[in-house]
């Protein structure tokens, strides 16, 4: 890893990738982003020609145009007709023309203030590029950080008002890259509630492909990430770039192919309904973007992204910590529980070997259904049969950790909190409310609200021995209008996110040993902004084993498996109505952070024996799933009838295969495993069968499936050690 300056070239080099920039008379031009190059001499260059209708900044040179040069900032209004990265209203216009005036290399990570940042306990270096527009009197500072053991670069931007007048930022991307003309595909993670993170791959054509959220959260339907893959790139081969954002609010990401088939990539805050006023000498800082590259296809990109997130984004305290097997009472009881019911569930969980008991929604105030009481975070002692601390002590006495559900950012109209502070809800004057699950959102852009939430949840965590928090978020932002002025309201959605990060950084830093799991009706806010504080995310409310296959495939496409919650639930499944075997439900849930959410007290002895075996088995394979190298053997989106995932860790490997519909008169599927030691012999656990690594990888493992729908198999291989 090294950041160097050679002549007019800046190199931001990681172990395996390079970002190379040229300073041409103050213009910042992007020469390369991709596989590592230690020494660059303009072999790949834009031959400057007189392109019709591409304007020139100087009358002497008709061959130099911002419309054709590859850049990392899109200058607005001087002949670059692609999407800009900066739009600032100053004086009477939005024209900006930034020239490099200074740079320095800092031997550490520089953080974006008030926002989620990667952490680095190893050597990191940051290239700081300072650009100025003398006419607009604006300074734009770009930060590029390289980490010692990663092929990923992070970047963000800061805009400073150097003038004596206020200016308004209408757009400032976190990162922008222009890449050479080629046939590309774009890959995004999209979907909807209960079918999150579908991997969508499509050809990029001339025009703009974009995704965005204006929900005030990343949302179920899109993830703040955009991949650009060589059209020929496959699972194992080819160039792939990924832009991701460490942000949980309104975002945009786009790929724009222009008339020369060159491609501009950008990611940052969504500029719809956004503006940020800067008084003289104030600055606006963007969220941090992650720029990853792999020449080893989608698997290579996944490995790079998963490793970076595990090593630099997930809180360090939990990155290498095995996650407990949990029982959650939500689908077992919904709101209908009392102390006896909870303790009988905990008894069963403990007897079956589970490790964490989670009390979901309904433990506080008057919360007997989802129409009321959000905001009234006082324990309902008559429902819990006493103080929360007593219930926790009882659960702990059964050898289980204790977890609690909360939804701090919300307020019900039917709540004491609303009656005391109706103005704390997000709302616009004279517009009433828009309801969602009958709840409203608190305005975290208001520091008083954040202070109240800090105090309230600090109190709950200080007074109770809580080991885990499930932090839910069950609606999106509407009716923005709390600002005293138009501009203040335009700032509200981002100011909310700053309040949210202030709140969660405070609580997670004050209670570093509490494991937080993010939830938003499942994966409605499953992004790197929350993952910086909450080490795991409930991937989806959809617990049906078959529907979960593409959800889990997409949830681990960029994010590490250790960040993904996955549970076994009852049949018929509460979301899909489907009946699947308990074995299959177990196998699918074991591909993430394992748990159960069903009424264990209603299970037969045979079912309990299966569950006990699943729990014991997961404890053995847990390091493989949570820390191992993941390989996608069969993509459930392409192979609509099958899915297979493999994990390799040290001298072991586990393969999970699921077949959806029974087939007849077909040759059984053969899975070619990956990542094994060619010369080693692997024994199939629980049998005397042994295979060479080369055989499993190059000849493959042929399945032998019985008849029946929704069946699965799991193979656990352990390297045979010779005496
Ligand atoms: C939505 C979550 O996704 C569920 O798991 C559950 O916690 C409910 N909220 C509780 O209201």
List keywords for this structure.
binds (2R,3S,4R,5S)-2-(hydroxymethyl)piperidine-3,4,5-triol; alpha+beta; TIM Barrel; 21% helix; Immunoglobulin-like; 38 strands; 3 domains; 723 residues; ten-stranded antiparallel beta sheet; Beta-galactosidase, Chain A, domain 5; eight-stranded parallel β-barrel
Which ligands appear in the coordinates? (2R,3S,4R,5S)-2-(hydroxymethyl)piperidine-3,4,5-triol
- Percent helix, as a range, is 10-25%
* Number of domain modules: 3
Discrete helix count: 15
- Gross geometry: globular
CATH class of the largest domain: Mainly Beta
List the helices and strands and how they pair.
Layout: E1 2-6, E2 9-13, E3 17-24, E4 27-35, E5 86-89, E6 99-106, E7 124-133, E8 138-147, E9 153-161, E10 167-179, E11 184-192, E12 195-203, E13 207-212, E14 225-230, E15 240-245, E16 251-257, E17 263-269, E18 276-278, E19 283-285, E20 289-294, H1 297-312, H2 316-319, E21 326-328, H3 330-333, H4 339-351, E22 356-359, H5 381-384, H6 388-397, E23 401-406, E24 410-412, H7 416-420, E25 439-441, H8 447-463, E26 468-471, H9 486-490, H10 492-510, E27 515-518, H11 528-531, E28 536-538, H12 545-558, E29 564-569, H13 582-589, E30 593-597, H14 605-627, E31 629-634, E32 642-649, E33 652-659, E34 670-671, E35 681-684, E36 690-692, H15 693-699, E37 701-702, E38 711-719
Parallel strand pairs: 21-22, 21-30, 22-23, 23-26, 26-27, 27-28, 28-29, 29-30
Antiparallel strand pairs: 1-2, 2-3, 3-4, 5-10, 6-7, 7-8, 8-9, 9-19, 9-20, 10-17, 10-18, 11-12, 11-14, 13-16, 14-15, 15-20, 16-17, 24-25, 31-32, 32-33, 33-38, 34-37, 35-36, 35-38
Bound molecules: (2R,3S,4R,5S)-2-(hydroxymethyl)piperidine-3,4,5-triol.
(2R,3S,4R,5S)-2-(hydroxymethyl)piperidine-3,4,5-triol is lined by residues 330, 360-361, 370, 405, 472, 474, 519, 521-522, 538, 541.
């Amino acid at each position: 890893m090294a950041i160097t300056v050679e002549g007019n070239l800046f190199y931001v080099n990681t172990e395996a990738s390079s970002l190379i920039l040229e300073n041409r008379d103050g213009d910042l031009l992007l020469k390369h982003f991709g596989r590592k190059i230690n020494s660059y001499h303009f072999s790949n260059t834009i031959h400057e020609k007189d392109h019709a209708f591409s304007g020139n900044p100087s009358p002497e040179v008709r061959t130099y145009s911002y419309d054709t040069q590859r850049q990392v900032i899109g200058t607005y209004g001087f002949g670059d007709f692609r999407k800009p990265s900066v739009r600032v209203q100053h004086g009477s216009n939005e024209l900006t023309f930034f020239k490099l005036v200074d740079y320095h290399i800092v031997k550490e990570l520089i953080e974006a203030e008030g926002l989620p940042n990667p952490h680095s306990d190893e050597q990191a270096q940051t290239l700081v590029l300072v650009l100025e527009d003398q006419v607009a009197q604006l300074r734009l500072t770009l930060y590029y950080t390289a980490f010692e053991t990663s092929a990923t670069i992070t970047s963000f931007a800061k805009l400073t008002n150097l003038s004596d007048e206020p200016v308004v930022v209408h757009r400032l991307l976190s990162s922008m890259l222009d890449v050479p003309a080629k046939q590309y595909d774009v890959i995004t993670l999209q979907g909807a509630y209960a079918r999150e993170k579908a991997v969508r791959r499509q050809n990029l054509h001339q025009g703009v492909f974009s995704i965005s959220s204006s929900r005030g959260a990343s949302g179920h339907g899109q993830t703040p990430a955009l991949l650009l893959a060589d059209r020929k790139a496959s699972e194992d081969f080819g160039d792939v770039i990924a832009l991701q954002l460490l942000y949980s609010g309104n975002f945009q990401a786009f790929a724009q192919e222009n008339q020369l088939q060159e491609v501009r990539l950008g990611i940052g805050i969504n500029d719809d309904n956004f503006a940020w006023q800067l008084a003289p000498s104030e600055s606006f800082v963007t969220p941090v973007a992650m720029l990853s590259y792999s020449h080893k296809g989608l698997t290579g990109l996944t490995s790079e992204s998963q490793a970076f997130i595990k090593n630099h984004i997930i809180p360090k305290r939990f990155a290498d910590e095995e996650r407990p097997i949990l029982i959650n009472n939500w689908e077992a009881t919904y709101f209908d529980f009392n102390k006896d019911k909870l303790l009988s569930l905990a008894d069963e969980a403990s007897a079956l070997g589970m490790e964490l008991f989670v009390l979901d929604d309904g433990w506080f105030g008057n919360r007997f259904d989802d129409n009321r009481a959000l905001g009234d975070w006082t324990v309902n002692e008559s429902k819990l049969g006493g103080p929360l601390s007593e219930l926790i002590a009882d659960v702990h006495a059964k050898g289980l950790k204790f977890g609690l559900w909360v939804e701090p950012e919300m307020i019900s109209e039917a709540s004491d909190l609303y009656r005391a502070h109706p103005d704390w809800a997000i709302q616009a004057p004279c517009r009433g409310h828009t309801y969602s699950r009958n709840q409203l959102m608190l305005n975290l852009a208001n520091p008083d609200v954040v202070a109240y939430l800090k105090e309230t949840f600090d109190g709950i965590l200080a007074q109770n021995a809580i080991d885990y928090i499930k932090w839910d978020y069950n609606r999106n932002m509407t009716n923005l209008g709390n600002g005293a002025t138009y501009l203040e309201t335009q700032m509200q959605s981002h100011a909310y996110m700053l309040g949210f990060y202030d709140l969660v950084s405070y609580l997670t830093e004050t209670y570093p040993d509490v494991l937080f799991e993010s939830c938003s009706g499942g994966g409605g806010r499953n992004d790197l902004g929350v993952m910086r504080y909450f080490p795991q995310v409930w991937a989806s409310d959809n617990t049906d084993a078959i529907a979960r296959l593409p959800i889990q495939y997409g949830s681990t496409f960029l994010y590490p498996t250790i960040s993904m919650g996955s549970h076994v639930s009852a049949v018929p499944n509460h979301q899909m109505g489907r009946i699947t075997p308990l074995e299959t439900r177990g196998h699918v849930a074991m591909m993430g952070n394992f748990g159960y959410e069903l009424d264990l007290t209603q299970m037969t002895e045979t079912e309990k024996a299966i569950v006990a075996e699943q729990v014991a088995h997961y404890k053995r394979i847990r390091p493989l799933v949570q820390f191992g190298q993941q390989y996608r053997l069969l993509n459930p989106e392409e192979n609509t009838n099958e899915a297979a995932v493999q994990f390799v860790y040290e001298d072991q490997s586990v393969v999970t295969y699921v077949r959806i519909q029974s087939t007849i008169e077909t040759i059984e599927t053969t899975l070619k495993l990956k990542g094994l030691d060619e010369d080693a012999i692997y024994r199939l656990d629980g049998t005397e069968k042994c295979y060479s690594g080369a055989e499993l990888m190059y000849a493959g493992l042929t399945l032998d499936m019985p008849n029946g729908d929704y069946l699965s198999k799991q193979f656990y291989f352990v390297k045979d050690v010779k005496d």
